[in-house]
Structure formats: C-alpha cells, structure tokens
Amino acid sequence: MKEKKKAAIFDLDGTLVDAYRAITCTFNDALETMGYPPVPIEKVRRSVGGGSAGLASRFVRKEDVPKLMDLYGKNYAKFLAGRVGLLEGCEGLLEFLSGKGIKLCVATNRSRYTVPGLLDELKIGRYFDIICTADDVVNPKPDPGMIISIMDACGANPGEVFYTGDMDIDFFTGRNAGVDTYIVSTGSTPREDLEKIGGINLFDNLVSLKSFLEGSM
Q1: Quick one: which of 56, 103, 105, 154 could link to 130 by a disulfide (CB 3.0–4.6 Å)?
Q2: What is the mean pLDDT of residues 124-136?
Q3: What are the angstrom distances between the C-alpha of 121 and each of 12, 80, 86, 160, 205?
Q4: Cβ-based burial of 183 (10 A; exposed 0-12, middle 13-18, buried ≥19)
Q5: What is the chain's percent helix, strand, coil content, to nearest 5?
Q6: What's the first-to-final CA gap in the chain, in angstroms?
Q7: Distance between CA atoms of 188 and 20, rounded to whole angstroms?
Q8: Looking at residue 96, which CATH number applies to its domain?
Q9: Averaged pLDDT of the chain
Q10: In terms of domains, do 70 and 155 share one?
Q11: CA-CA distance, 181 to 111, in Å (whole number)?
Q12: Closest by alpha carbon to 2, among 152, 157, 128?
C-alpha cells in the first residue's frame, strides 16, 4: 500500500457474509412453486457471483427466469432470519478500517432490493457509506464499473482504494479497475482454483486480511 487509502470496497456474499442458506431456501421455494426440482446448497454456492438473474438462469428455462425472479424478490426477506451470518472477522475488520477514517463501501452483483434487508438482519449497515449493486451499473462484475463509480463518489483515485472479494471474478474486477485487490478463500471459488490465478493476494479469511492491513497501513 503506497498511497493512503480513502476507501475500502467489499463484495458481500462469501466475503463479508454467509447467506447461502437464505439464497438456497428462497430459490427452492420459488422453484417448487414453478414445478422445478430443488437445488442443493453446494450447487448454489458454486453458482453465485453473477447476480440473482444469473443464478436463476442456471436452473430454469430462459422464458421462466422473470417469473422465478419475481417470486424470489417477493419472498427473499422471509428466509433471512436464522439463515444468514457474518463471516469470521467481519465486524472486527470493519471496525478497524472505520477507525482509520476509511470510507467503507459495497460492490455486489446482488440486486439492490436484497441488500438492505440482509445488512439490517446482520446489523452491519451502519458501517457503509456507499452501496453499489448490479442494478446501479450497466454491466456487473467483473466489469470495473462498480469500482469506478464508487471511486468517483469518494473522490479517490485507484491508488487510494482497495477491493476485497472471494471469487475469481472479484480478482478480475479489481484488476480491471486498477486497484489493490485482496481475495479471501471463504466463498464460492475453491481455494485450489484461486491459487491457480497468477499475481493474486490470497488470504484464508478476514482475520488474516486484517492482520496484513494492520501491518501495512
């Protein structure tokens, strides 16, 4: 880290939060309503990252995606309680960065309507200054549009920002935006696949990332 950081940008699912049970239950409820078979949680876990519509398109016919998304949107909130949680070290890292005066931001391929309820359920919404979702940009990650939009809002250049995610697409998102990028192996992309990516800054979890940042900021 060469320049003083103004903003820390985070992906949500698999990076800060574990919402795979909630996502799976919501999708399976909608799939059952539409006459499709349920999907196991590990398949959902490996399929997220491209946003809700991208996930839906993996499990139903193209013409059924809008209906599935409508059902998902109507029912998502009722499956949150008891099915979402913070990943180890999440709140400690957010507290540390907030104490440094760094703006905390979210860049997620989720649809915007799913984010407030999730953050409220986990009681971490208060930490974030800016939230950018797939609904707020022309193209989702790995396009750098979310990162660029957040940098513009913060008045920051790439050297003053870092981005943290859990997937290969997060690595490419950060690289495409030209910002320091850190990947935690707590989400959808298996560690062995992440290790194959050249030049990746890979951490076991948010605890080890915090230790690194404490020594470099």
Answers
A1: 105
A2: 96
A3: 14, 7, 10, 31, 22
A4: buried
A5: 50, 15, 35
A6: 7
A7: 10
A8: 3.40.50.1000
A9: 93
A10: no
A11: 23
A12: 157
Q: Domain holding 28: CATH number?
A: 1.10.150.240
Q: What angle do the packed helices 90-99 and 206-214 form, to 10 degrees?
A: 20
pLDDT digits (tens, 9 = 90+) for 76-117: 999 999 999 999 999 999 999 999 999 999 999 998 989 999
Q: What is the pLDDT of residue 31?
A: 95
The tokens for 159 are 């050297």
Q: Which residues contact 158 (CB under 8 A, 6 or more apart)?
A: 151, 177, 178, 179
- Residue 53 DSSP one-character state: H
Count CA atoms closer than 13 A to 41's CA, side-chain side: 9
The residue among 79, 100, 121 that closes a domain is: 79
